[in-house]
Design a protein that fits this description.
Blueprint: E1 5-6, E2 17-18, H1 19-24, H2 40-53, H3 59-69, E3 74-76, H4 84-96, E4 102-106, H5 109-126, E5 132-134, H6 142-151, E6 156-160, H7 161-166, E7 178-181, H8 184-189, H9 191-201, E8 204-205, E9 209-210, E10 216-220, H10 231-237, E11 251-256, H11 261-271, E12 275-279, H12 282-292, E13 298-300, H13 307-313, E14 319-323, H14 329-332, E15 342-346, E16 350-354, H15 363-372, H16 377-380, H17 394-408, E17 417-419, E18 422-426, H18 428-435, E19 441-442, E20 445-446, E21 449-454, H19 458-469, E22 475-477, H20 483-492, H21 499-502, E23 506-512, H22 515-523, E24 529-533, E25 536-542, E26 546-552, E27 558-560, E28 569-571, E29 575-581, E30 583-585, E31 591-592, E32 607-609, H23 610-624, E33 626-629, H24 635-647, E34 653-656, H25 664-672, H26 679-707, H27 718-733, E35 735-741, E36 746-749, E37 755-770, H28 778-787, H29 793-805, H30 821-831, H31 857-865, H32 876-892, E38 897-908, E39 911-922, H33 924-928, E40 941-946, E41 948-953, H34 960-970, H35 978-987, E42 991-994, E43 997-1000, H36 1002-1019, H37 1021-1035, ...
Parallel strand pairs: 1-29, 3-10, 4-6, 4-7, 5-6, 7-10, 11-21, 11-22, 12-14, 12-15, 13-14, 15-21, 23-26, 23-33, 33-34
Antiparallel strand pairs: 1-2, 8-9, 16-18, 17-18, 19-20, 24-25, 25-26, 27-29, 28-29, 30-31, 30-32, 35-36, 35-41, 37-38, 37-40, 38-39, 42-43
Amino acid sequence: MIEAKYANLCHICHGELKTSEIEAKKCSITKKPLCYFREEEATKEFLDFFEKAIGKARALQIFWAKRVLRNESFAAVAPTGIGKSSFGIAMALFLAGKGKKSYILFPTTLLVQQAAEAAEKIKERTGRKAEVLFYHGNIKNKEEFFEKLQKGEFDVLITTTQFLAKHFDKLSNFTFDFIFVDDVDAILKASKNVDRILNLLGFYFENGWKGKAKGVLMVSTATAKKGRKAELFRRLLNFDVGSSHFAIRNIDDIYINDESHETIKNLLKKLGSGGIIYARSSEEAEEWHEKLKDDFKIGLVTAKSKKAFQDFKEGKIDFLIGTAYYYGALIRGIDLPKEIKYAIFIGAPAIRIRIEDIDSLSPNMIKFIASLLREREEIKKFIPLLPTIEKRGEFQELKEKIKIIMEEGIGKEEDFVLRQGEIILPDIRTYIQGSGRTSRLLAGGITKGLSFLFEDDEELLNAFRRRASYYDIEFKGMDEIDIEKAMKEVEESRKIRGRKEEDLIKPSLFVVESPTKAKQIARFFGKPSIKAVGNSIVYEVASENHILLITASLGHLTDLITGEAFHGVEVNGKFIPIYASIKKCADCGYQFTEERKECLRCGSKNINDARERIEALRKIAYEAGNIIIGTDPDAEGEKIAWDIANLLAGCGEIKRAEFHEITPVAIKKAMKNLREIDENLVKAQIVRRIEDRWIGFCLSQKLWEVFNNRNLSAGRAQTPVLGWIIKRAEEHKEKRKVGIIPDFDIMLEGIEKGEVDIEIKLIEAKKEMKNPLPPYTTDEVLRDANSILKIPANKTMKLLQNLFESGLITYHRTDSAYVSDAGLKIAREFLGAHFHPRQGVQHGAHECIRPTRPWDKNLLHRLIQENVIQVEEMTWQHLALYDLIFRRFMASQCKPFEVEMRKYRIKYDGREMEENRVVKVEGKAYELYRSVAVKRELPEGRFRKRAIIKMLPKSPLFTQSEVIHTMKEKGIGRPSTYATIVEKLFMRNYVVEKNGRLLPTKRGLEIYSFLASNYGEFVSEERTRKIEEEMDMVESGKADYVELLQQIYEEVKSIK
């Protein structure tokens, strides 16, 4: 194990946390476990009680117990059948033994009766003496019940939600220690019930809610819309209810370009019972019911009659048929995970907008249609006005333009249908909701389902499939699927498994760096329940095998200390880095590790200490018992993961999730392939940071002494880069005289006068096929963003980080141009016949920078506006950079393009020169990314032409993009540091930028001169490159990091 120390970060004694303690998972001072919390004993006691009452607790039930015993209210994110109700009853009886009162609410009297019976059985098994009072309409002695209730002669009260509303006056004097709500929808539907629950927990309303919770509330997640009252749970109890509609699905989606009665009838016979059938309308549902009822046991579900539900559940009928309506009973009002095995849609769910509907549509719908038609010339001018167009005079004009387009009905669209007089929009939301009935998350895992889409309108079918692909739904044809095999898998996934095998779903803390990344990943799995732990926001969602508690570390949690040991490293035959929590001034942004309560730079006491985040992570990790670390897939991300693992030692099993793009497919794949932390990557990053600290501190101190300025700094990599900029600036001063001939776009050396005689002769004309450039690596994208978009390197890195965290591009710190199979698939989908795969050479796990979807900039912008994809922020710079990445990648996967070239001999003033120029380029790759400069052909013959005489520098000044390209060529810096090195030169005022070109300042010249003449051997280009190469060898496991640190240590000690 890599040795390290963490100053003042032991959770138990608050002293130093050492490697030996991390390995032992025990504090050496107190001998207590590192992840010990005060509710540990109570949790053990409850689990013993639970085992006697019901059996061995599942991981999720242990997780809930820790929360309740910590007095934390929460929404239980969990699949059907995991044991929420039995947990609530057992917890209530356990707390009764502590003299505490509990209240359990169910939506129906049947569930109240069952809960009362379950409570009696638990009492018998555990010997618990507790008074359980329950009420439903059929109890015999109601007077006795109300008498006991009035006197408070009970430990556990079990009623329906309706009882709470009807008899609250009889409950209002009580404050409960634990309230368990089995169906939170019933509470949220009647908003007064939320107020009543809050009253029973100890809050009171007096010009606003006052007081604090004296008890704990545990609720299920909501299936319906939550309403405004649910916000009170977030404000007063620190949690958000979330949704029980999990976004994970395990469904084979199959399309059939046919709606005939015989085809559907044959399929039903082949599949057997367990199907739900969706028709376009209630009339069509009735027609199909008539057609099928003689051959099949089938029930019709309408808005008025839902009797068929019960018949289906009891096995009296085999099929249900109704309408494909988003709010319909058969889409949202049914949850029979074991009975429903497949869905059949007779006709693709679609929204039809007729020309006569336009005037009555909402402004948002008009904007949506305008967005769909944004490529039409008539609509383009309205697109920039869309955010506020309903308040402008152009709104009516836009409507009229839409009507004209609809009236013409001309044009082939990809993801909707435009016909004369109407627009047909595929209704994917309804399809996802309806087909989702066939695949549900249960205690034993996710069930498999089949969904069949019958549609004989080929144009609509293609539009539907295209739009479904935006949601990662890929349809297969009937000939691509083995129905018998698929149905066997469907049946197998529904078999009841043994209890041990059933405990497949475990709570897991999932740590990433940024809140954006956390939120984006949470969205993939549904609408999360949200909870604040300290200052950290936690998103709770269900995945296939985990209840994920996703939160952000906000980057590094620790850094090397200052003022102790040898610049933060203990040297005694070993090299042991000493880390402390990072403190950051909220006012001026200054960062430090010393134990101080105020900022060294501005004196502010408004300090954010990462220790608070570390403690929040420990709390969540202790509750969950499993930790997954999903930091960035590079050495820096690995070091953050290693620190988190060390700081959470003893809190549970710790694994690393590696993903190079933030998409549902990539995240799910990473979750199935969890790994250990790669210590070679960690060692390399430790060496980088120590080397940076040692060289930086030692040389910076010399600068402070000589120049009497503590804002100066020196670094191994930034010094040679500063030297290049200075050298180029000196070369720039040397001038050369040239004559520019504007008519021919040529430049001639040594011209002395304003007119010149030229003879031009074509000596070669040829055509050749050129391969497009490879996809972007970090240096190349920084270069193009600077030269084409004029965006500085540090800003580009921030934009790239945003695009990556929003799930739009792959990881952006990479020097690999390799394209994964997933990347090839995306290119094939977008390019079609132009596709020509080039995978490149794979170096480790990294790949090129590419888009994660086959969406160009215009489609991406539209999907953001339509809310198909949700991103935190998308400026024109984000979109422009995305466009650059998309075009370069797609061009790289195109067939070679044809280039026409001309070679000319040019004679003038007794001189002769040759000019090669590209005069014509053809091919998809060039259309996408113009990698070749095209000039017009030159005429042959003799000419007298006007020349513009100019004195040009022999070498142009560096741009940021050229500096970064030179860094890559010379092996200085790495993808993660290119932009940082350039940024440091600006921060220290060593260079400035004028008209996009870099110039050294007076300070920069003085600093470089001092360092080069006194410490040249430490900051030379050659030495810097060698150190970078040796750190790369550590990263790949080919060199010992301790030996490299020893070498750097000896070097630094020699600095005088």
